[in-house]
Design goal:
This protein is of the alpha/beta class. 27% of the residues lie in helices and 28% in strands. Strand 3 and strand 4 (94-99) form a beta hairpin. The longest helix is centred in the N-terminal third of the chain and has 11 residues, at 8-18. The radius of gyration is 23 Å and the shape is globular.
């Protein structure tokens, strides 16, 4: 624990000692805020002074539980992607701190009997819909709390024993590579570089010979809360060349609709109908045979390739999830919703 008047430099030293990546900011034992190594990194990148007070980098909406909620602590930490959770009384005085095992250590070891397949993260695009953020940061490094979106994707796969990752990069690729090389990673990440922009699928061709069998492919701007083991098992059971994870999304029309009959009179009216669609989330399970369908060194989108597979009577599967299980950070309004869903400050 630190006080608000402690300097950033002092807090960095405490974080280095406790090896948990964060400290609690308190006053007379009462929890005020938390500050993580990620908070400090962003503060310094923004030009902050390491001699400045920790209050300038702290997060003043800390996550905590009351003693009667201790049984919910593990679920809260997993859902919020945090590894430490203070227990406070109703005056917010610190009573205890609960820790979650890091998902890339013991939990991952336990999961390795379930999944050990590669994960490809498509991270080569310019992120046009997130301008002006992506004029400065590449989309894979957009922060969601104390972690980047890409790190949160990786953490979710690690919970199922996936520790071998490939990242297809292009736009600001040196920035991305430098960021991950500067972190102490407990997983294997290999960068696959596009020499030119190859669309949402063309870069996958560069993985041919590097991955075999079935593997996951994820866009770099989505978070999927689903059972990845079950998704893979369904893909294998159906013997699909590719399986799309789709969200069952509902749209309510803001107006009443009118249908015309054959005789020119109104045949049917409906007040603000709810329309449902299955939306492609950008998460796939792919068989290595799919890579044979991708032309070499050619710009091609995933939808085009999947449509070709359907026309050629290939088995294309669909795994359906509810829309609230899909968080899309690829455009500004959806990024704001993601922050809200994760209870993060935007």
């Amino acid at each position: 624990m630190v006080e608000e008047g402690n300097s950033i430099k002092e807090v960095m030293e405490k974080i280095a000692v406790n090896a948990r990546g964060l400290v609690l900011v308190c006053k007379s034992g009462r929890l005020l805020a938390t500050v993580t190594d990620g908070d400090i990194r962003r503060y310094i990148l923004a030009g902050g002074d390491i001699e400045g007070e920790v209050s300038q980098a702290a997060h003043y909406s800390p996550v905590f539980v009351y003693p009667e909620e201790r049984d919910k602590a593990k679920d809260i930490m997993i859902r919020r992607n945090i590894t430490a959770l203070p227990v406070v009384d109703h005056d917010r005085r610190i009573m205890d701190i609960l820790f979650l095992r890091y998902p890339d250590e013991t939990d991952a070891e336990e999961a390795k009997g379930r999944l050990e397949v590669p994960v490809v993260i498509m991270a080569g695009g310019k992120g046009q819909r997130l301008k002006p953020f992506t004029d400065i940061l590449p989309k894979p490094l957009i922060p969601l709390g104390e972690k980047t979106i890409t790190e949160r994707i990786i953490m979710r796969f690690q919970k199922y024993g996936c520790n071998r990752f490939y990242m297809v990069v292009n736009y600001k690729k040196n920035f991305i590579k430098a960021y991950f090389s500067d972190n102490e990673m407990k997983y294997q990440i290999n960068f696959v570089e596009e020499e030119k922009f190859l669309g949402t699928a063309g870069g996958l061709k560069l993985l041919q010979g590097k991955v075999t069998g079935d593997f996951f492919v994820s866009n770099c701007d989505i978070l999927i809360d689903a059972d990845y083991q079950e998704i893979l098992a369904e893909h294998i059971r159906k013997q699909c060349i590719i399986t799309l994870v789709c969200a069952h999304k509902k749209y309510q029309m803001p107006y009443g609709t009118v249908e015309e009959g054959a005789d020119g009179y109104v045949s049917h009216m409906q007040e603000k109908p709810v329309l449902t669609y299955n939306i492609n989330t950008g998460l796939y399970v792919v068989n290595e045979k799919f890579l044979d369908r991708i032309p070499q060194d050619t710009f091609v989108d995933m939808t085009e390739l999947i449509s070709d597979c359907i026309r050629n009577n290939e088995k294309v599967g669909m795994y359906l999830i509810e829309e609230e299980k899909w968080l899309d950070t690829g455009q500004m309004d959806e990024l704001e919703k993601t922050y809200s869903a994760l209870n993060l400050n935007y």
